[in-house]
Amino acid sequence: MDYLLTEEQIMLRDLCREVAEEKIKPVAAKYDREEKFPWEIVKILAQSDLCGVYIPEEYGGMGGGILELCITAEELSRGCAGIALSFAGTALGTDPILLFGNEDQKKKYLPDIASGKKLAAYGITEPAAGSDVSAMQTTARKEGDYYVLNGTKHFITNGGEAEIYTIVAMTDKSKGTRGASVFIVEKDTPGFTFGKKEEKLGIRASSTRELIFTDCRIPKENLLGREGQGFLIAMRTFDMSRPGIGAQAVGIAQGAFDAALKYATERVQFGKSIASFQGLQFMLADMATQIEAARALVYSAARQIDAGVKDVTMQSSMAKMFASDVAMQVTTDAVQIFGGYGYINEYPVEKFMRDAKITQIYEGTNQIQRSIIALNLIKESKKK
Amino acid sequence: MNIVVCIKQVPDTTQVKIDPETNTLIREGVQSIINPFDMYAIEEGVRLKERFGGKTTVITMGPPQAENALREAIALGCDDAILVSDRAFAGSDTLATGYTLANAIKRTGEFDIIICGKQASDGDTAQVGPGIATQLDIPQITYVKKIEKIEDKTLVAERMTEEGFEIIQTSLPCLLTVVKEINEPRLPSLKGKMKAKKAEIISWKAIDIDADEGQLGLGGSPTWVSKIFTPPPRPKGEIFDGDPEEAATKIVHLLKDRLN
Q1: Which CATH class is domain A7-119?
Q2: Could you tell me if A2 lies within 8 Å of chain B, comparing CB atoms?
Q3: Distance between terminal CA atoms of chain B?
């Protein structure tokens, strides 16, 4: 397959693949079991210049775009999606700064993220505000030169491990979604603490934690964009980040498929390899085709964003939704191909299946993605 | 500090095949990699540069395609790369190779430390490093597992032996051959890979290194291979269990019988 990548993109892909093969794969099961944060791998990503692939060169990054981010997320997820999330979760926390940060904010925060010195996280979800962002309870009250944050965010990827948090909070509840704003909050700010760390089905190397704000005072310079722009920033951020989730899903699917194909050609039953049976051949063919289709959609969405196409909401949602549904299907089939061995943790496919599930849920459930796609279709049809 | 790292491109296999006619390695159809032991030499060379400043030059003698190994070394952090390549070098044994590399290193100018892997994974001789040091008439420490310190033109290193290790102090310049215990080689960086792609590889032929033609290539190689064979596998040992005293007596009797 030729994905029409540039020479630099191929170089990036090969390097990420090497990191995944040599450094991530050997420790993936251990991190999955122990639920520890993979700092040793973050260090390797930093040393290999991978933390800032999507950050402009003037802020210390490699100057790539969303396609470079997707290539990195995909290849690392082939090794372990939980470990790869230290990178992808940081990208999600960084996107609002890239999109709406002023020069001072970019200069202050991006170089440390690009070098891998600091991780970032994005805080929008709350116990009562999942898909319904407008139900958000966290508030930010202006007091002189400060904003005072109160409330709780939960299910926050990289929570507790990241140094830089972009947080959505209500500055004016009476205005509904037009009353939300986004702030940069640094770890160790007084009044900012961490709550319970979740124990999860999959992506267990990733830290998912509660963020608690109790009269947390942050300087007013940490407001991203303008007051009331919060919902817009959040939606634009998702437009940019959803192909990355698609890429993660493609990586998970590919990782599971690689293992299943190898197993199918090696496992002998009835005197021949199980790959010689048409029932399995059709499964393998369908899996590979689904992965190719998902990858094509993800790369296409990423390329449109990088080319500056104005409205990418629908493409981003399609890429995220389709690729994550493919990941769930392909990993489930991979377990099936392994038979009983697929169901036990001595082989890697059950982990791929557990890791795949989250991609259908986070950054907007696939039901929300379908709503977004449908609403966009209806909106466009009315324009005609 | 000027550091020179010598590397060799080898076939990517642990199953080296020998041509029974010529008694040389069969290289066709096998991908080439940097000799695994040389990866530790590169890493140590790059670490020394990062610690003390200066420059790390990587050098190899080999066919034109050995350029790929040099580019990989640049991606791993080396600054300059030199390919010593000429038909005149064909058929070099370890003596001629040591001589050729030593002459090339002289040509690079001032150097403080030369680092080699302990041996190549194809030939397994472990002679080229010591050969270079001899030709350059500088001290050498082989099987280095740790560089303890470098101060005032002296270097202290731990050297692996079968029983343990020795601590050796030497003056600079010197040559070290390193073992895998010395470090954990890094993966290349993206910036390094981009630099490697554009890097200019310096290429020297026999006339560029001021060498005595008689000491090069096949003509300068006194080694001849009379026979290459796989040694028979070691037969399984016998285990004497039960009462230690009885077992010891049995062993003593057995040894006595064998000696008689």
Answers
A1: mainly alpha
A2: no
A3: 62
